[in-house]
Write a sequence for this structure.
């Protein structure tokens, strides 16, 4: 364990594999009097429920949690963000990624599944509605990500692509969710 001396007191310089700067050490140990440091404060990304205990009593926050320096407990990241061990704050998920609110172990955001999209800071990914399909990468918001199925194609449910109507069938409009026999199409058009 690396340490340095301040007067006659040795201070921890590396804590749980993280090298502390002089300002970290000053924050951690506070003011000094003839009896030693007046308090101990855990560094960012860690906590110690027994305030004032030795720095060795500080425990790193778990994945999906964060803390500012000196906190007695770690806080769970909100949905749509993540935090790794030793995080001082949570990082929002980028568009096309998500992190669920129930994920207390979110040390990274997860990619949206094929055929779904999300905006930034999303807790979940969303599929295109029936009659639409995903046209861009999953990193777009809905107006750009989903487009209407064109005449002669359909999407019965959320799908990443529209399907062509089977032979002998068609549809009457864009954004169709099904196809009908072609002879009905001719009746509809007044033939």
């Amino acid at each position: 364990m690396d340490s340095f001396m301040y007067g006659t007191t040795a201070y921890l310089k590396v804590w749980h594999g993280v090298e502390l700067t002089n300002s970290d050490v000053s924050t951690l140990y506070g003011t000094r009097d003839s009896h030693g440091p007046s308090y101990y404060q855990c560094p960012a990304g860690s906590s110690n429920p027994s305030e004032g205990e030795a720095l060795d009593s500080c425990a790193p926050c778990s994945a999906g949690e964060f803390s500012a320096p000196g906190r007695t407990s770690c806080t769970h990241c909100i949905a749509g963000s993540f935090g790794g061990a030793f995080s001082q704050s949570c990082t929002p998920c980028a568009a096309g990624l998500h992190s669920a609110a129930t994920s207390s172990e979110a040390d990274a955001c997860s990619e949206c599944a094929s055929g779904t999209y999300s905006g930034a800071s999303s807790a979940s990914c969303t599929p295109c509605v029936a009659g639409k399909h995903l046209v861009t990468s999953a990193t777009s918001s809905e107006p750009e990500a989903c487009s209407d199925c064109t005449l002669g194609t359909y999407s019965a449910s959320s799908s990443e692509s529209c399907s062509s109507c089977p032979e002998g069938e068609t549809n009457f409009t864009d954004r169709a969710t099904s196809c009908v026999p072609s002879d009905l199409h001719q009746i509809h058009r007044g033939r």
Q: What stands out?
A: The longest strand covers residues 3-6.
